Amino acid sequence: MDSVCSKKPSAGFLVVQERRGKLFRLFFWRYLFFVANAHKRYLAMLQSLYIKNFALIQELSIEFRPGLTIITGETGAGKSILIGALSLVLGERASSELVRSGTSKAVIEAVLREVCSEKIEGLLGAATIEPGEELILRRELSSGGQSRCFINDTPCTVGLLKQVGELLIDLHGQHEHQLLLHSETHEALLDDFAQATPEVTAYKTTRSQLLGEQQQLKKLNKEAAEILEKHEMLAFQLNELNALELKSGEEESIETEITLLENAETLFTLTTSLTELLYEGEHSLYSAISSALHTLEKLAGIDKRFAIHIEESRTAKSIIDELARFTRSYSADIDFNLPRLDSLRERQLQLQRISKKYHRPIQELIVLRDELQGQISLEGDLQEEREGREEAITRLQAALSQEATLLSSKRQEGARRLERLIERQLAELGIPHATFKVSITHEEHPEGELSVDGKNFRAFEGGYDRIEFLISTNPGEIPKPLVKVASGGEISRVMLALKSALADSVRLPILVFDEIDTGISGRVAESVGKSLKRLSLLHQIIAITHLPQIAAMGDLHLQVQKFVQNDRTLTQVTPLDHQSRLQAIAQLISGEKISAASLSLAAELVGGAASL
Predict the structure, then answer these.
(1) Which of 146, 244, 390, 474 maximizes the CB count within 10 A of its CB?
(2) Alpha carbons 270 and 265: distance in angstroms, whole number
(3) In terms of Cα–Cα distance, which of 379, 452, 462, 534 is closest to 183?
(4) Mean pLDDT across the chain, nearest whole number?
(5) Cα distance between residue 520 and residue 571, in whole Å
């Protein structure tokens, strides 16, 4: 008996299922857009572009929106002029030939909002440029060839403008603006895709500690080498100064004692004579003052006015008595030690010689002696510290090796997933035989900072891996670096595939695609359009196209037209409403003569894009 499940579904059931599928897809992408905004996946948003007196453009101002902006127009209408103007405000090389004839200067100004970039903040801070709610990039080009650059109305160098511009807008169709073509960016992109941030942080922390220890060890080794080189000289000087047993103030003390010994006889003669004069002589001062005091006392007994001088006389007698005792004692202690005098003179000569030899006074030689002692003692301390640093370096190198291995393993696992994802997306974008490879290599070095499987490798800033994206777009070709992919259309689709794969994990800049529809049509064009649409939920995208399948995906449609006014050719850019947009897409389908069928197909394409 046939089961219910074996019956074919009815047409009505299929319609309901198709509608449910469309509703689910619509809900899913709108939810993704909501999540993207909630987490500020946009790096920035280009709000407006003002162009004046540039090539065929007299003056125009273009307003942009989030999502996908489509730019269409006939060949030669001036679409490339828009890209040229955008390139100029991003810091590209300028030529005075771009200034509209008959005018003195061209002005291009880009206004961006919601800029979320620490790198840009750092660049502006270093250049003392005040940040604001808007980031305004302006380039002025004179007919004489002079160029002036401004960021937020502050003059800046073209180099700074280029640095900031490259971080904000990734312009495809010109190799110098293709961020993903630069191999130095591949490591960070792979790490984001592989969610290897914790491993990268751990590795960088350990590497920073290792570099610090190595720097300190290098400094210690230098100090030790300098001390070792001077060791014999330092030891000789220290022994020489220690042997002299230098003491502070010794020079003055020796000089004083030599003076006394050299004048011992004179001192004895004079003090003996002074003692006689003061006390021991027949007519000494002591006897005279004693007699005078006796007479003064008698006078005071008769006339009280002499009484006030009695105490003064007694004080004078006491002073003479004290001085006499001192001179007797001094005379008795005078040293006539000639051997001592010779010894002092020899010591004095030693001090004079050493002072002359080192060109320093004795007090400074004492300081030098202590410094030499410290330097020689430091040699032992340095050796101990060096051993400690070497142990720390060995320990950190082991930790770094382990962390580098873990990081590399995670990158390799992520690389395999990224390869499969890119190849699958490239097939959908019309490059079915593409081979995408993530090259992960290592630089072996005998003095490498880390060791893996018994071999030494260089430890780079982000690991011991060297990472580069390789691709082959044709069967049988060996994958080569992205920068060597020659076809402009292929490059744009490769970039679209890469950025679609990385969109959920990487904060990419504003994306501008110029040649993305080169060499494609039909189903591939539709796939490219859908991929752009999905990517625009996470990143603002501007795409120039000639294909209706891609144009129908736009959230904003700008049409570039060329016309003649007052015998001058002008280019203008017009934002299209719904009806004008259908007309423009129908024109891409059928050419100048728009038919009812092409309008119907245009409406179908736009309606299909809205249901994504």
Answers:
(1) 244
(2) 9
(3) 462
(4) 83
(5) 27
**Residues near 98 by beta carbon (within 8 Å), at least 6 away in sequence:** 54, 55, 84, 88, 106, 141
- Provide the 10 A C-beta neighbour count for residue 177: 23
The answer to whether residue 561 is domain-embedded is: no
127 to 13, 108, 130: CA distances (angstroms): 64, 21, 9
User: Which residues touch 356 (CB under 8 Å, ≥6 apart)?
Assistant: none
Domain that holds residue 348: 185-414
Neighbours of 491 (CB within 10 A): 24
* Tally of structural domains, the chain: 1
Note whether residue 529 is domain-resident: no
For residue 474, give Cα distances in angstroms to 372, 416, 426, 438: 75, 20, 12, 17
pLDDT tens digit sequence for 431-488: 888 999 999 999 999 888 888 988 999 999 999 999 999 999 888 889 998 877 756 6
Is residue 76 in some structural domain?
Answer: no
User: Using N-to-C axis directions, what is the helix angle for 362-428 and 197-229, rounded to 10°?
Assistant: 150
Model pLDDT for residues 360-387, shown as the tens digit of each residue: 888 888 888 888 877 776 666 677 778 8
Cβ contact 267:260 at 8 Å: yes
Q: Structure pTM?
A: 0.61
At 506 the pLDDT is: 65
Q: What is the pLDDT of residue 469?
A: 92
- Sorted by sequence, the CB contacts under 8 Å of residue 70 that are 6+ apart come out as 543, 545, 550, 551, 553, 554, 556, 557, 558
Model confidence at 507: pLDDT above 70? no
CB-based contact 418:193 (threshold 8 Å): yes
Please give the share of the chain, as a percent, with pLDDT higher than 70.
88
Dist CA 52 CA 34 (whole Å): 36
Contact 480, 471 (CB under 8 A): yes
3-state SS, residue 481: strand
Cα–Cα distance, 549 to 538 (Å, whole number): 21
Both tokens of 132, joined, read 């604001």
b/e map of 225-252 (b: 16 or more CB within 10 Å)? eebeeeeeebeebbeebeebebeeebbe
Asked if residue 36 is part of any domain, the answer here is: no
- Angle (CA) 593-594-599 rounded to 5° is 165
From residue 7, alpha-carbon distances to 1, 11, 16 in Å are 12, 12, 17
Query: Which tokens is 339 given?
Result: 């051997």
More confident residue, 484 or 218: 218
